[in-house]
């Protein structure tokens, strides 16, 4: 099969882009894979053939025409758009060229019963890949999407690269490190984390602890101001974007995800593999992998008091912390392997291709 991934991101590197890279390069061992992209910072990470396109809007005539040319020249069989802007373009082009169009959706977001959503997710899509059962359940509520078109495929983890890249040294500003990572947007809930950390420090004023948040985004100035207002400047580090965050994940004692909406966070999975204790809001499919108190901890979104209490409990109980971290590592090793992702992804692509041929 000849498979073309589409990614129109223009603001750096995130979980969606990680999945695209891993999926494309894993499949490349058996099939021909390509990438249509917008941002050169993303394309240079890929070791497959790439094509730069404008991706100016959801209906972009220039991108559509050029994409049709690529599909015909390279004999593309399957399109896999990975961003919302890509969905419409891929859907239109797939119907013109007769290719299979399979959307990749990595966030739990209910669909409105609108003509536009029906067009994109039902009429123009042959299949939908999601990374958690929770997202599938949310989509299935919209009765106009056929459940058999939706396939849950957990993200794979490139454990070899994690082992190699996490070995770089990372300076520890304190003996106990709490880490978080992601785009600095309201959806990620970093303000909740910062306030909870401040509450933990009030409860344990002598704690040798630090909070490190890796990422960049529109809330950077706002979060810096919050840290200053809470008078914890000497305890919080906002690193900006880290090209290699894995030494941080390996160094930290706790990795916290406070998102209000998510699929299953890649960063959280990577930190779990590297032995950190995961603490997360029950967003997206996180409850599918974390058993509260056994291989991690679940905290309701916006419950800052509960999050502060969990941080305190883990700070004062290193043996329990180590046991939970070990259990977290075992969980992701079993559920999120690359061979499993590769097998399930290729099975679904083949199945959707055969369905399209029959219709």
Task: Provide an overview of this structure.
The chain has a seven-stranded parallel β-sheet, with helices on both faces. The chain has 359 residues and is an alpha/beta fold. Helix 11 (266-273) crosses helix 13. The relative contact order is 0.12. The protein contains 14 helices and 13 strands. The chain is 45% helix and 17% strand.
Helix content: 40-55%
- What's the Cα radius of gyration? 21 Å
**Structure classification:** alpha/beta
Terminal CA distance: 19 Å
Mean pLDDT: 93
Report the uncertain regions.
none
Beta strand %: 15-25%
Q: Which term fits the overall shape?
A: elongated
Count the DSSP helices: 14
Order of helices and strands: EHEHEHEHEHEHEHEHEHEHEHEEHHH
The number of distinct β-strands equals 13
Largest sheet report: 7 strands, parallel
Give me the side-by-side strand order of the main sheet. 3-2-1-4-5-6-7
